[in-house]
Amino acid sequence: MLLARKKARLRSGARRTAEATVDAVDARLPLTEAARSLLRKAFPDHWSFLLGELALYSFVVLMVTGVYLTLFFEPSMTESVYHGSYGPLRGVRTSEAYASTLRISFDVRGGLLVRQIHHWAALLFVASIGVHMLRVFFTGAFRRPREANWMVGVTMFLLALLEGFAGYSLPDDLLSGTGLRTAQGILLSVPVVGTYLSFFVFGGEYPGEEIVSRLYPVHILLVPGLLLALISLHLLLIVHLKHTQWAGPGRTGRNVVGKPFFPQYTAKSAGLFFMVFGVLTVLGAVAQINPVWDYGPYRTDQVSTGSQPDWYVGFLEGALRLMPGVETRLWGHTLMWNPLVPGVLLPGALFMVLYAYPFFERWITRGTGEHHLCDRPRDRPVRTGLGVGALTAYAVLLLAGAQDVLAFVFDVPVHALTWTFRVALFVLPVTAFWVTGRLCLALQAHDRDLLEEGEPSGDVRQSVDGGYQPEHRALPAGRRHVLLARDIPGPLEARAGRRTPARGRLALRLRSSLSHWYYRDQVRPHVGVEQQREIDAVLAGPDRTEAGGVRTDSAD
Fold this sequence. Notes:
Blueprint: H1 2-28, H2 31-39, E1 42-43, H3 51-70, E2 79-81, E3 93-95, H4 96-106, H5 111-139, H6 147-169, H7 174-188, H8 194-202, H9 211-241, E4 259-260, H10 261-286, H11 292-295, H12 314-322, E5 327-330, E6 333-336, H13 337-363, H14 381-400, H15 403-410, H16 414-453, E7 455-462, E8 468-473, H17 477-484, H18 502-519, H19 529-539
Antiparallel strand pairs: 1-4, 2-3, 5-6, 7-8
């Protein structure tokens, strides 16, 4: 009895101490209010919104496995004779980096499993960022007010590519050394300063003695730190700006309908993390990847047969192989268009377009209000066509990066295959753009028919004159709402005043022409004035003023 009263007093004292501590901290930092707001934040209940979490959780796996690997890796190019467990390479001179990679694979308990989990997680990290960005692009989730978050995502994608290349190059094996040699050739192609860039990166003549020791802190400290900061900023912006969501009953541009962060979404998210970790562990255990012992240590006079980079830089390899070897002499300098164009200008143009696209679409679009409902890809034929065309070009370049392997497997001449890919690079993306646009318009027309006639019931009615006609029934309210909740902007008109300078008029005409090209092809459903007002009210964001002049804010 005495012991029970003593335990009760201890519990009561601990409770009072905890409450006093929380009150003291909350008086200085608004933790309680922030925690309450976060725990009740609504997350859309749709699988496509989990793509970003795949990137987050694969990054967590990368951090955990990377910390383990740093305990055993030696980032040094100092050569010594290998005397480890792997018999075929005993007595061969290797760098410390390569020898430590072999030691991790064959001598460290669980080292090979962790190495392979790390590599698979890196591939999943880049892939999930790419697919997540495609979802954001095709649904228009980059529009105001989320342009900054789109730019953060593009920067994370760029850093992920750099991080993957740095980690891929650390083992100093024959395959990664071939990739470094390609990177050095790209650096040398930069006009005027290329030689200086190469000397700065490699610490002298290629391959030098410092490239691995320089890539190591970039791979384990600099880029991961930047990624961690950008991920935090990305999540902070998501919490502040709210998620976009698919159109549906009760969902408007002024609210977010979904499951609260705790406990529903927390349980789902935790389950996804363990699934990601489990799948990566199974892949690391049963699917061999990057067997550096098969390639051997790097030697400058050798290239591994059929060497291919990881898929995310495969388009760069393909561009290098398709670009003709053309050079130009100007003012005492030689411009090597290959690899300058495919290795420097092409990636630079790609990321410039990615950064600028939200502002380009906003420039040619009538109305600059906020957008919180996702577009269906079919409702934006030009945007969807541009995305599919870009993916088609990427696929052509990826296949071109394996032209030698394809020529060997299918027994076709490499020269003929190269010209086939060159032609395909210009023809297939344009074809894909046109076909995608036509398909989007056909799907829009189908949606209009459903709205006007209803969906087929499966019954056929015979008329008095002997004809047969299929019967239709009205669409369910939820599906009808989705088909009607479309933002269909019209093209901009060029309206230049009398005092507008010639340069301003040219810009207005260009803007109007691009807007007409972008928005002229639309299949608009037939709706009444009152129904159109209801649609506008659903689509209106919190920055727009409704009837009566009341400005409403987004709410969870």
